[in-house]
Amino acid sequence: MAGDSIPPEFRTYIETSYTFIPKNDEERIADNLIDLAAAGMDTKQPLKVVFEQVAKFIFRQFGFSEVAIGLKDRKDPVWKYEVALGFSKDTELRILKVRYNKDDMYSQETFPNLKLGKLSELNVAEGLPPSEADMYDRQKMLNPKRTSSADFMLGDSIDIWMLDDKKEIIGWIEVSSPKDRKLPSRTTTRWLELLGSLCAQIVMSRWAEDEMRSKKAAVP
Amino acid sequence: MASRSGIIIDPELKHHVDSTYSPLPRDEQEKLIEAMLTLTEAARDRRISLRAFLERVARTLFRFFSLDEIAIGLYDRTQKMFVYEVLFGYPSDLAAQYSRLKYEYEDMISNDRYPFIRTGKLSELDPVEGLPSDERQILNRPYAGSLARAAEDEFHEGDYIDVWMYGPQKSLLGWLEISKPRSGRLPSRTNLRWIEVIASICSFAIRQRWLQEDVARR
Fold it and tell me: Domains in chain A and their CATH numbers?
């Protein structure tokens, strides 16, 4: 070994101070973001598998019992769910069959909502279209009454947008049914937005890889 | 707020949401999340060059983690060597010397040439005690490392932390090198985790720009 050696007591101090096991929520979130980024970079892992990891992380860390993740079709203006976690099997199958168009994704008319942050919004149960209530098996919530503004009602959902560099929606994370039945804290929505933004980066990277592969394949 | 079919969003709910979720960060943690979010957006913005993006990263590290010296290195695909791309907070003569350094892959990973201690999944501390004498000369600190550490968490002159940026199949794309914390102490484990997240964001920024270059070339 070139240079002087590292004093053993210093090495021990560092190794015990910087153990890999997260000691609080903040470290746990950071740790999961690092793992997700690594999974996103690993081109051998299908995007769907990465999204399943994202959904499980949200379920465990932020206490949402239902998490769905959707993507835009690369060529057509069609958006569909890729992953649905925490739903009954029937509901999951219905969710995965749904297709949305540009109006559905961008218009305030189809899904009345309130902005929670730059990348997130609350879709209120009061505005849930009957077709969606059907999909989620929530017919009984078509005429909901809110008892408190802080309540998260059955039929409410939060969308976190994945945007590309032109600010177009390339995907989204949808969370609902928080275990405490309350709207999440502002900090939690910010964490979710950061997660959504990292997912957008992963999607864009995968699409760039695909483009490169198809260009290579096109060369005679 | 009226919308589809005259649906009215309860004004009390709207007031609650507007006042609870105001966009201004209210504490240091929210400011940091906001800064990370801004970096992820810049990472995928094709109009921002890689160098400009990495300079933003250095400024974020300077501001949020109170580090006075930040170097960011990249794998140079033409030279097939690792070189420094951004040197933030270094005196200009030292920055000029660093800019001329080139490393082989073996230099980057070898525990023999640069003895290190792992501090996280992506990071390691390279204590000055293990710094090769030729590099101490560059630092103009030939005697650095000969002084005993007064406290275990003291960050010595010549210590630095490398945080690795990996691409597909663990290929090494670049690294963040941080030193001179204003507190004179090693960074907290939590802060180091966040710096590792920033390095992960950098990996995507690098990878995406390389892919864009490759696609444009074909």
Answer: 26-214 (3.30.450.40)
